[in-house]
Amino acid sequence: MTVNPDIQGKEFPPTAPYLVGREKVREFARAVFATNPINVDPEAARAAGHADVVAPPTFPVVVQEATLAQLLADETAGIDFSRVVHGEQRFSYTRPIVAGDELTATLTVTSVKSLGGNSMVTASSDIVDAGGAHVVTAISTLVVRGDA
Amino acid sequence: MSTTIDFATLTVGDVVAEREFALTRDSLVRYAGASGDFNPIHYRDDIAASVGLPGVLAHGMLTMGFAVQPVVDWVGDPAAVVDYQVRFTRPVVVDPEVGVSVTVVAKVGQLDAEASVARIDLTVSVDGSTVLGKAQARVSFAPAQHV
């Protein structure tokens, strides 16, 4: 099975809204060894000018996950999950994520390339808030190993 | 965004932070729960071995997640990190008994005076071998635009 090059440019439907909880931010912060008070203490966050605790820089992966599930479940894409290796990851912010945000992600397959028998699939998820304003874009490059 | 660092004092090549992280299997289980990534290669030796891995691996996203924390603590506010990217170049094997030690060194890679943004380059390594490539965090020193 090989990755279908025609999925380049494909946009998936927006995911169900994800409500960012304060305890979830704290739990994630602890898991990535984030100890900055702005990640965990609402008072410290407010003192720094934020509405509530600020999520660590890689937190959007939690929201992005639902979009990658859409991609992997798409039979026309032909991506065999057992052959997928995470190649690259990027987060580009317009503003930080804070507890209380309601986020929706929309995935676009921006590139499908062949490289030495493997496929490189780049998936870009635009994450917006309840008002539709851009918060962060999460970009994953997945390496799909070809048949050995 | 709140910081006590003065952008004007930064010089390309400055080491701004350096830290060692001790990862154990507990760290992987905690990250699996927090992130929702329950791929068993991150907690089961038998499954890791069955797909030809040298052992249970840390989630790449866990390594990406903690590698930026020295930068966050240096600048003083997680919201200052406006862009962050890495390449996953080498797996991090986590021994069940002793775990693994991952070293992070953060250096100023580039300065954009007009935008007041510093690119901080991260060298993330285990036993002297880097595990991430092109690990770059862009840190904004521009005044925050709060509503």
Automatic annotation (TrEMBL), chain A:
InterPro entries: FAS1-like_DH_region, HadA-like, HotDog_dom_sf, UPF0336/Enoyl-CoA_hydratase. One of its GO terms (biological process) is fatty acid biosynthetic process. Residues 9-137 form the FAS1-like dehydratase domain. It comes from the Bacteria. It holds the Pfam family FAS1_DH_region. CDD domains: R_hydratase_like. GO terms for molecular function: (3R)-hydroxyacyl-[acyl-carrier-protein] dehydratase activity. HAMAP family: UPF0336 (MF_00799). Belongs to the UPF0336 family. This is UPF0336 protein SAMN06309945_0726.
TrEMBL record, chain B:
InterPro entries: HotDog_dom_sf, MaoC-like_dom. CDD domains: SAV4209_like. It holds the Pfam family MaoC_dehydratas. It comes from the Bacteria. Residues 14-108 form the MaoC-like domain. PANTHER family: (3R)-HYDROXYACYL-ACP DEHYDRATASE SUBUNIT HADB, 3-HYDROXYACYL-THIOESTER DEHYDRATASE HTDX-RELATED. Belongs to the enoyl-CoA hydratase/isomerase family. This is Acyl dehydratase. It comes from Okibacterium fritillariae.
